[in-house]
Amino acid sequence: MPATNYDELKQAITVCFPAMSKQLQGIARFVLERPDELALGTVAAIAGAAGVQPSAMVRFANALDFGGFSEMQQIFRGRLVERSVSYRERIEQMRQSKRNGAGTGGQDSVLHQSVSNAIAELGQLEETVTAKQFHAAVRLLAGATQIHVLAQRRAFPVACYLAYALSQLELRTHLLDSVGGMLTEFVRGIAPREVLIAVSFRNYSAGVVEAAAQCHRRGVPVIAITDSPLSPLKPSATIAFELGDDSSRPFRSLVAPLCLAQELVVSTGHHLAGTLEKRRAMPARTRKARA
Amino acid sequence: MPATNYDELKQAITVCFPAMSKQLQGIARFVLERPDELALGTVAAIAGAAGVQPSAMVRFANALDFGGFSEMQQIFRGRLVERSVSYRERIEQMRQSKRNGAGTGGQDSVLHQSVSNAIAELGQLEETVTAKQFHAAVRLLAGATQIHVLAQRRAFPVACYLAYALSQLELRTHLLDSVGGMLTEFVRGIAPREVLIAVSFRNYSAGVVEAAAQCHRRGVPVIAITDSPLSPLKPSATIAFELGDDSSRPFRSLVAPLCLAQELVVSTGHHLAGTLEKRRAMPARTRKARA
DNA sequence: GACAGACGGAAATATACGTTCTAGTATTTA
DNA sequence: TAAATACTAGAACGTATATTTCCGTCTGTC
Question: Distance between CA atoms of A138 and A274, rounded to whole angstroms?
Answer without folding.
Answer: 12
